[in-house]
Every structure is written in structure tokens, then in C-alpha cells.
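Reviewer 2 asked us to include a model.

Predict the structure of this chain.
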Amino acid sequence: MSMSLFVILALESEPVTNDLNKASKELGYNIEYSDNIELKEQSGFLPVVLNSEKTGVEIYSYPDSDLPEALNNVTDISFSKPVVYQLSFGENPMEGATAFTTAAILCETYDCVAIEGEGGRVLTLEQLKQGAEMFQE
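Predicted model (C-alpha cells):
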């Protein structure tokens, strides 16, 4: 079974994995992304090392107009031309931890909204951190 998190960022925010690695260190996360990958250009598996273990997450980006219909009215997005990053993972707990950790880093670093794909709930930063921890237990 596949699950997804959706992270919606303002258009002017175009994260590169080098930026995420820097933020990870500053914020105290133990995750390292492959160097110099523009998330907006990434489509598919993004390899990472989380807690010294090789893993990754499926990541896709698209305009907010392509957000799944069930999630369109979840939150009032006040960004100008936002970009959606979909973080998808399967049953592997490390991939789930990677998705939640990545969403937390994005939300701590950029102006964003995170939405849980199954129920359409807006997630707080604390909920993203708790989700990452839950997958690592």
C-alpha cells in the first residue's frame, strides 16, 4: 500500500538537496540527501541516508492546480502560484520516516503547508516530527 504526503510551497521556493542537507544539520535531523538535486526537477526515487541507513522516498512536483481533487479544498492556500511536492512511500518504515522527515525539514525551512494524502488533514510541524519518529520505532 502506498501513502503520500503533500507539501505545498510558494513558487519562489525551489529547494535543492544541498539546501536540505544544510537545514538538516542546523535543525538536528540525521538525514543526508544526494548532492545538488533540484526537487522541482526530481521525478521518482530520491536516495537518502537516514540514521546511517540507505533509503529514500518517491518525490514528484507539479502545480497546485494538479493537486488531487479530494485535497483541493483542504486548506486556503495564500501562496502565489504554489508548487506541490508529493512524497510517496510504501510499507518500508524507513521510507515513511524519510517522507515525514523531509516534509518537516521543508516546513521548518520554507513557507509551506503539509497535507496527509489519505485523510486530507493539514499536518503541523509537530505532527510531521511525530510521524517520522513513529516510523523509526
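The beta strands are 3-9, 31-33, 44-50, 53-63, 83-89, 112-116, 122-123. The CA atoms of residues 95 and 133 lie 12 Å apart. We have added this to the supplementary material.
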